[in-house]
Write a structure and sequence with these properties.
This protein is mainly α and about 190 residues long. The protein folds into 3 domains: about 1-35, no CATH class; about 45-95, no CATH class; about 95-193, Alpha Horseshoe (Leucine-rich Repeat Variant). It is built from 11 helices and no strands. The chain is elongated, with a radius of gyration of 23 Å. About 30% of the residues are buried.
């Protein structure tokens, strides 16, 4: 039982800063000496935790500080998963004031972040963005982002986009992602119009 307490303490509270002092502190606190002969520690730089934290900020969307933090993370965070999570969370807020921000993020160096920004823009269902989506489809080098641009056209385009989507469906991509996105977009437009 006492070893399991130590494992919990190590996992939850130890960082790189002064592990020997922390061991002494918790030994005194619990009245039980550290049970192992040595202490090894491995850390990774800002993995998923930041992404999880940004997704939780949706609960505070009415607070300008939370939205400001999300915008900053979406643009400046060094880890792509945090940027993507911030974009996805801002997209759930569904505020048109983020249109320009999302358009800028469509040029992020990570395709997953660009794809999230394209999805957020597509969810606005704004016909005025069709030209932007077509341009992103033609200029982006990621088949995932290209497919999301096509789905976004399907969300906001009209029948005049059907021939463009048919042509796009002829492009090859892994697992036919582009072809399937174009087919979905065409069907969505046909059902709406």
């Amino acid at each position: 039982m006492k070893k399991s307490i130590w494992l919990l303490i190590i996992v939850l509270t130890f960082s790189l800063a002064l592990p020997a002092q922390k061991i002494d502190f918790f030994s005194g606190l619990f009245g039980y000496k550290y049970p192992w002969a040595k202490y090894d520690q491995v850390t990774t730089p800002r993995q998923g935790g930041g992404a999880e934290a940004t997704s939780e900020l949706i609960k505070y969307r009415e607070k300008s500080e939370a939205v400001k933090g999300l915008k900053e993370s979406a643009v400046k965070d060094k880890f792509w998963a945090v940027r993507r999570s911030a974009v996805e969370t801002l997209g759930k807020i569904n505020s048109r004031e983020h249109t320009g921000l999302f358009q800028d993020i469509c040029r992020d160096n990570n395709s997953k972040v660009r794809t999230a920004a394209l999805k957020a823009l597509g969810d606005y269902k704004d016909p005025g963005l069709v030209v932007f989506f077509r341009k992103r489809f033609k200029e982006d080098n990621s088949y995932l982002a290209q497919a999301e641009a096509l789905r976004s056209i399907g969300k906001c385009g009209d029948r005049s986009q059907l021939s463009f989507l048919q042509e796009a469906a002829g492009m090859t991509s892994p697992r036919d992602v582009i072809k399937r996105a174009a087919a979905w977009a065409r069907e969505n437009i046909k059902q709406r119009n």
